[in-house]
Amino acid sequence: MRGRILPREELSGLPKTVHGGQAWKLEDVEDYSHNLNPFGPPSDLAEIIASAVDGVGHYPDDSCSELKETISKAFDVDVDCITVGAGSSDIIRNVPNTFFRKGDRVLLNRPSFAEYAQQCRIVGASIEWNDLLAENDFRIDSDEFIEKAQGAKAVYICNPNNPTGRIEPREKLIPIVSACEETGTLVFLDETLLELVPGYVDNTMSGMVDRFSNLIVASSLTKSFAIPGIRIGFGFANPDLVAEMEKVRMTWNVGQIEQCVANVLIRDRLDYVDDAASVMAEESEVMNASLNEIDFPVGPVSDSFFYFCSVAPLGMDGGEFKRRMLRKDIMVRDCSSFGERFADYVRFSVKDRERNCRFIAAADSVING
Predict the structure, then answer these.
(1) Domain co-membership, 328 together with 255
(2) DSSP secondary-structure letter at 164?
(3) Are 269 and 225 in contact (CB under 8 A)?
(4) Which candidate, 17, 40, 20, places its Cα nearest to that of 31?
(5) Kind plus residue range of the DSSP H or E element containing 235
(6) Which of 22, 60, 120, 267 is deepest in the core (most CB within 10 A)?
(7) Which among 253, 269, 285 is the end of a domain?
(8) Within this chain, do residues 209 and 234 fall inside the same structural domain, yes or no?
(9) Is 0.70 topped by the overall pTM?
(10) Which range of residues forms the domain containing residue 164?
(11) Which residues pair with 217 in a beta bridge?
(12) CB proximity list for 143: less than 8 A, separation 6 or greater
């Protein structure tokens, strides 16, 4: 009898994570389940990619030196404070692989992005949940969070939070990071979605990583430029943390084409993202008012560019609402994968006026017949 090759015990019973953005598999379906820039990539993206093709016969620059210089100038962060990855998911994976040991306690908000817990569990870390409550508008209770963080190896904060869309202001986050620094607790702050919200400069913590010894800020081009098929992410941290993360980063993790595209987009196209953020903020208010008019339980205007809503008042759960909207060629995110508590929640994004009107009409038909 042949011996059976067994995986590490940490993988036993560990399910694959579930994500949105699956409407590309379906014809003529408008995808509201993802939270990408609704205006798509810049119109000259194909030309930018074509300009990089000549370089694919060589290994890419493993240090991403030119790209780091570009990021440094754009975000006003020292080069030594930057690490680059194949999407922010690469950074999310590298953090526990660099800093966590089996049994380390990690504090995560719930609901939030599923990959945090997934990657922590893979290395054997122990998850403690900080439940975000509807009665507190799914916002972090700072005092409670700081108390729970004592003795933890790390805490994770997504800002704006996915799936709730809530933004925690920088003046609220600074005391949390400071309190964690005093107890030797790492703070992983995911700002992947923040650039698509007006006021990025006033809310980002990326420029403060040299002030704290325990802060890692993750960002990405995926959402802001609507290029999930081109994997570019980056992290900001003090040089000591970056040096350790570089030890576990996969060699040549960012290809030649990706580096070229990222250089151009960050150097010359950030205004494109700012313009999209401004339009979506305006359209969010219009969409919110229209949803209220058809008695959809949308709640207040979102902090960001997507909504997280319970459809229980409509007499259905998230899965049923998703199925009914799909019959209207609209895909929303059923949020049951974020936990049983959210089985009646859905997430959907804000797009331009024309497409949002289509969404409203479909929702009206589902609700009011």
Answers:
(1) no
(2) T
(3) yes
(4) 20
(5) strand 233-237
(6) 120
(7) 269
(8) yes
(9) yes
(10) 45-269
(11) 189, 236
(12) none
pLDDT, average across residues 45-52: 95
Residue 313 structure tokens: 């008042």
Q: What pLDDT shows up at residue 13? A: 75
Q: What's the DSSP call for residue 64? A: -
Residues 218 and 326 reside in one and the same domain: no
If you average pLDDT over every residue of the chain, what do you get? 95
Give pLDDT, residue 19: 66
Sequence-ordered list of residues with C-beta below 8 angstroms from that of 139, at least 6 positions apart, any chain: 132, 166, 168
Cα–Cα distance for residue pair 213/187, rounded to 1 Å: 10
CA 226 to chain centre: 13
Q: Which residue has the tokens 């507190």?
A: 136
The pLDDT assigned to 21 comes to: 56
Of 249, 269, 289, the one marking the end of a domain is: 269
Please report where in the chains the tokens 């015990």 appear, as a residue.
Answer: 9
- Residue 13 burial (CB count, 10 A): 7
Residue 294's CATH number: 3.90.1150.10
CA distance between the termini of the chain: 62
pLDDT of 23 higher than 60 = no
**So what's the pLDDT on residue 10?**
81
Q: Is the pLDDT of residue 26 over 90?
A: no
Give the strand pairing for 82-85 and 30-31: unpaired
